[in-house]
Amino acid sequence: MIRILLADDHAIVRAGLRALLDSGVAESDSVDVEVIGEVATAEEAVSFCATTEVDLVLMDLRFGPGKSGAQATAAVRELPSPPNVLVVTNYDTDADILGAIEAGACGYILKDTPPAELMAAVRSAAAGESVLSPSVASKLMTRVRKPDTTLSPREIEVLRLVADGLSNRDIGRRLFLSETTVKSHLVHIYSKLGVKSRTSAVARAREQGAI
C-alpha cells in the first residue's frame, strides 16, 4: 500500500491529482495507492507527516505566505520516519529544481505530465527512486555540462531581486550580504549570461528559464 499525502494550495489541483490516482488504481491491479490526506499549506504538510504514517508526499513548490515546498520537503525529510517526496509543480526554473532536490525530494515532475507517467512516477518515487520530467532532466544535464555558464542558486536569487527592481544596497539587506558581494555576484552573472547591464541580464535569464 502506497499511502499518499497531497500538498497543494489549490483545491482543484488536489482534486485532479486524487482523480488521476484513483483512476490509475482502477486501471491497474499492480498499483495499490491510497490518498490518505490533503493539505493546503507547507506547514500542514509537515505536521501531517509528523503525526501520520505517509509513504509519499506529492508536494507543490509555492504555497503563498509561509514555508515553500522546498522548505517543507527539507523539514519532512528530517522527521524520524520520513516519507519520500515527489515534487509536482508548474515551475521548472533552475533555482526551483535545485532547491527541491537539495531539500531531499527524490523526484520532480510537472503538472502537465500525462496520467500514465504520473502513475509510474508515483510508483518509482514511493520506492525511493529518482524521477524527473524530461524537461527537468534536460535542464539538469545542461547545468552539469556547462557549469561555467549556469547561474548558481545564489546568483539566481540576486537576479530575481534585480528583476523586482531592488538596488544593490536593498538586495544586500534582503540577503544579508555586503554591497561589494552583491556587485561581485552581478559581475559573475553578466559574464555567464554574456550581457553588460541589469536589464539585459534579467531579459536573458528569463529567456533561458533561469528566473
Could you walk me through the main structural features you see in this protein, from its secondary elements to its overall organization?
Keywords: DNA-binding, Phosphoprotein, Transcription, Transcription regulation. The modification 4-aspartylphosphate is found at residue 60. This protein has 211 residues and is an alpha/beta fold. 55% of the residues lie in helices and 14% in strands. The protein has ten helices and six strands. A six-stranded parallel beta sheet has the order 2-1-3-4-5-6, sandwiched between helices. Helix 7 (153-163) crosses helix 10 and helix 9 (179-193) packs across helix 10. The chain is elongated. The termini are far apart. The relative contact order is 0.11. The mean pLDDT is 88.
Topology of helices and strands:
Blueprint: E1 2-7, H1 11-27, E2 33-39, H2 42-51, E3 56-59, H3 69-77, E4 84-89, H4 94-103, E5 107-110, H5 115-126, E6 131-132, H6 134-145, H7 153-163, H8 168-175, H9 179-193, H10 198-208
Parallel strand pairs: 1-2, 1-3, 3-4, 4-5, 5-6
Helix pairs in contact: 2-3, 3-4, 7-9, 7-10, 8-9, 9-10
User: Strand fraction band?
Assistant: 5-15%
Find the count of extended strands (DSSP E, 2+ residues).
6
Radius of gyration: 19 Å
Order of helices and strands: EHEHEHEHEHEHHHHH
Summarize the main sheet.
6 strands, parallel
Question: What is the residue-averaged pLDDT?
Answer: 88
The helix-and-strand class reads alpha/beta
Strand sequence of the main sheet, in spatial order?
2-1-3-4-5-6
Q: Roughly how much helix do the residues carry, as a percent range?
A: 40-55%
Number of helices: 10
Q: Shape from CA axes?
A: elongated
Modified residues (4-aspartylphosphate): 60
Organism: Nocardia acididurans
Keywords: DNA-binding, Phosphoprotein, Transcription, Transcription regulation
Domain Response regulatory: 3-126
